[in-house]
Amino acid sequence: FDSLGGTEIEIDDSVASSGLTRNEQTGRYRTFGDKFIWTWDDLDAAALVNLPLQSDLAMVARDKWERLVDRVTYFGDSTVKMDGLLSSPTDLTEYTVANDGTGSSKSFASKKTTPEKIDRDITDILNKVGDVSENSFTATRLLLPPAQFNIVFSTKTSQFSNVTIMQAILERYRTIGINLEILSCPKLKSGSQGSPFATDDVMVAYPYSDEVAVHKLAMPFTMFPVREDGDGNFCVPCWGKTGGVVLRHPKLVIFGKGI
């Protein structure tokens, strides 16, 4: 005869369960306020010479906003205790760059005649993300200061090849299905305002994902309608609000100094 049987399984404390514990975090936002003003004389002069006064002043105001957001995104703002991507190096992971360039230097410039060493430095810092995360994450973005970016972009892998270091690295990652970005970042130059790496050029590798880092831009740059300010002038108020970066996995942001 046919029969159908079953077994009851009781889920009790002996069966492991998955959970997540996270400490409460609080963050701050920095508000940016600005305005640009025209007098009647400005308007008359602009009309006489056909000068696009509005667009010029608007571009200046927006440039100030972009510079603020750029600096806060990377280095935070200590005055209001706001974090950036690189504001606390001790919370990140450091990759030690080999000092086997000319004169025992770590710099890419000292390794231009041995491009395989530059390739190795970049490959190793990218692989460090997988090592730290036990291969749960893969680096998908590499940031370089402009001078080092240009070296990687233009230096051939050997005197017998037309392939640059950058092309070789990107192609290797592409063949294994990883869309790697290599970007120039002026903020990584030594001496950048607010940088915790005062005397070092730095490269940074990390997974470009909201799982790792979230940029908090509460209110983008906004220009409000023109209004009279009471003194016979006309002004355009500008407003924006940024909160820096929340690092969910700070150890997956890898930096290497001295390049």
Description:
By secondary structure, the protein is an alpha+beta fold. Helix content is 27%, strand content 19%. The chain is built from five helices and eleven strands. It has helices spanning 40-49, 53-75, 115-132, 146-154, 165-175; strands at 30-38, 93-94, 141-144, 181-184, 202-206, 213-215, 219-223, 227-228, 234-242, 245-247, 254-257. A five-stranded mixed sheet has the order 2-11-5-3-4. Strands 1, 7, 8 and 9 form a four-stranded antiparallel sheet that branches. A two-stranded antiparallel ribbon has the order 6-10. Strand 8 and strand 9 (234-242) form a beta hairpin. The radius of gyration is 26 Å and the shape is elongated. The N and C termini lie far apart (78 Å). The mean pLDDT is 85.
Secondary structure: elements and pairs:
Elements: E1 30-38, H1 40-49, H2 53-75, E2 93-94, H3 115-132, E3 141-144, H4 146-154, H5 165-175, E4 181-184, E5 202-206, E6 213-215, E7 219-223, E8 227-228, E9 234-242, E10 245-247, E11 254-257
Parallel strand pairs: 2-11, 3-4
Antiparallel strand pairs: 1-9, 3-5, 5-11, 6-10, 7-9, 8-9
